[in-house]
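Re: the multi-chain job from yesterday

Posting the exact lines I submitted so nobody has to dig through the queue logs.
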Amino acid sequence: MRYLPLTPEDRAAMLNTIGAASVDDFYEDVPQSARLDGQIKGLPDHQGELAVERHMARLAAKNTTASDGPFFVGAGAYKHHVPASVDMIIQRSEFLTTYTPYQPEIAQGTLQTLFEFQTQVAAMTAMDVANASMYDGSTACAEAAVMACRVTRRKKVVLSGGLHPHYAEATRLLCEAQGIEVVQLAPAIDGELELASNVDDATACVIGQSPNVFGTVTDLSPVADAAHEKKALLVSVFTEAVSLGLVTPPGEMGADIAVGEGQSIGNPLTFGGPYVGLFACTQKLVRQMPGRLCGETVDADGARGFVLTLSTREQHIRRDKATSNICTNSGLCALAFTAHMTLLGGKGLKQLAELNHEAACDLADALDEVPGVNILTPRFFNEFAFETPVDAEAVLAMLDERGILGGVRISRMLPEGGMGNVIIAAATECTTQDDIAAYAAALKEVI
Amino acid sequence: MGMQSIGRPTTPVSALPGGGETISGSKGLQQREDLIFEVGSPDKTGVDLPTPKGRKSRLGGVTRAQDTGLPGLSEPEAVRHYMRLSQKNYAIDLGLFPLGSCTMKHNPRLNEKAARMPGFADVHPMQPQRTVQGALELIDELATWLKTLTGMPAVAMSPKAGAHGELCGMLAIRQALIARGEGDTRKRVLVPASAHGTNPATAIQCGFVVDEIKADARGRVDIADLKSKLEATDDIAGIMLTNPNTCGLFETDIKEIADLIHAAGGYFYCDGANFNAIVGRVRPGDLGVDAMHINLHKTFSTPHGGGGPGSGPTVLSEALAPYAPVPYVVKDEDGFRLIEHIEGEASEAFGRMIAFHGQMGMFVRALTYMLSHGADGLKQVAEDAVLNANYVQARLKSVMTPAFEGYCMHEALFSDAFTADGIETIDIAKALIDEGYHPMTMYFPLVVHGAMLIEPTETESKQELDRFCDALAGVATRAADGDEAMKGAPYFAPMKRLDETQAARKPVLKWAPPAPEAIAAE
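And the result, structure tokens for all chains:
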């Protein structure tokens, strides 16, 4: 057993030191009726590396990858190029195999990267402060909603019709468990500003998204003004972090809390996780934030160092009074994010965002030429919704037969949304002109 | 003698010049490393991207006004930055990491290799299901392992960490109570005083109220206190109990506790953080558990990554299975498919917890680990983990104070009763850093004064355990003797003790450029 260092002689010697006859002695507190006789049935015995690797490779081979052909799937997760050095950095043992940095004297590596991560996220979102990450964008959104209720002492949140439906569902679940009323506006491709007329004196926050799930970018400033007039908060959501290089960021629109998905920077698609939730807010809300925070301090010699801080918000100190039950964050994914951002810098991020936007513009131009296609998203970053005369599920299946993964149908996320023919298509820096031409040609065949 | 010193023998110097300070700020292999904001430049980038064509924007004017101003680093600078920082971290790959309740075991590299196969890493969660049959099969296969190892009929795969799994289990209980028409009346959740902080925090997040039950003198749930609470109230929603518990002990009366809770109309949530002690030897399903999360990053060796990502699949009993969250995987004659909405066969699901399907990258690693160990190996895992902990307890009990009598499970718990006045648990922890080890869990569980919780895990050899025990025994002896020098420890770490009070009083949570007057003064 290659992961177990003890030899039979070691075990015997150790039992002797302990004064036990066998390991069974250690399990004497287990009720007799729950003690298993021998090993658990129905599972295979141990296998060598080669056999296990073959098993996993066989499963992996059954999936179509995002690099196998023209690929336009987005809607909350995006195919981007990750520099080779990023994966090398996160596989460094000292980062990969360490724990949450509770012992700062021997965890400055993790802590300094978290401090840099927080600074980068705050700058990208144009917010005052950011935490050390959440599980993903959807759980960050749900936590933002309940945080807004804590801050305002109100119990009602309003979700835009362009908020990612999965984010809306995760938010509704957590809110309703806590007795918070959730108002969901009807699905709308360009309806974020409707939040402004749906805020009242009982509203804790309104939650809008830009770019939204249909790809529409919106300046949410009028929503922020309307919310603030009623002493409510604006939570501004994004699922595509690369958009922050080009699109008006939450802080420039007056958002009180900004949340989003950070997968696009540094992290592979991996069928939906692990990803990295980004969470930022204004300075005055910082003590109501969920999650880990890293702060600067000095050591006994006066040297600059970093520690986890404001932990009196957290479950391991405050228990039932904590701001959240979150314990782990998404440390290694946050490291991938910050390492990729360190390579990009602000300049590289902007350039990457421009390339994404241009690829999507080229795609929209090409699809617009296809008879029957109607581009629905008025202003977009790197994805947009379009309609065809044919059911979207059938269109995507026919594109799939032609080796093209053409996007996400709205009806998969919103079965009752009445948008059965609408597809969301995304383009990134990975999208080539050949991919776009192939998509347009195939679409012409199938509709 | 190395090439570089031929003809130029080095001369030993007895004292450190300049009080141990260097001009560069580095100390031998410990390289000084400034923040990226101090070394990088906003004009620089470490990626070579094509030049945008400059075509007309379709953003409709919704564009960023202010640049981020973030610095970029070239690849050699960036790689060096992270390498230098990495060397300021302790890690399992460097040595024994005895954090109790955290199960810091070896992370096999085959797991990492498998997770990076493009067929897993380069697959989008919203691709047509025909194109992700291998991913769905993997989830189903892992689910089968988890159900079989726990003896439970169902598992929710989407929770993203242990605490998120707790949330899943408690939301399932909430939904079951709603279905019974008792959602508004049963609000009380019993939580032992020794519980992880996440337990009460989770109960509150689900709209429950928390009622603490006492521990008895043996470190287990005080059955008399539990019974009196159950008799005094009729609003019990359930109990959240860790087993083996946070004192490293198996809850002897666990079946009776389960029966009592069920008889009172409540459900039994088991915190599965310590499953590593019993995997392959005891099935929680045989103990009357209704819901239990499994930390894949503990028992099943996925890396802790400096604080996540975790993964917390949550097994559910027959009573709670109908309320499992969407999405989940089912198999039928056409292959595997996802149930993504609260309708049809999932009409009783309590909702959706996350955007997609769970921590696939962690699923790949955990299944790789399970297949490597097999049913026989996992049983050996539990036995070696418990043997190692008992060995540590046996070796240290003469110089430290075991919190409870008798054998432990996978972790050994000591109180600070053996220390001299003025020496505290934290001083022992920091002195252990100087001995080359990460400290044990300190001051947890709360029911033991100055608690020190040591979990060596099964991936330590006897030689490593002996080295560790020798070091800790020496530190413990210094603590018993009242060695004041321990108050200054660590002395050999990259940093001295850090001022956490200052950090919290005036939080500095991001880098800011130095003020202009400071620059002028330099």
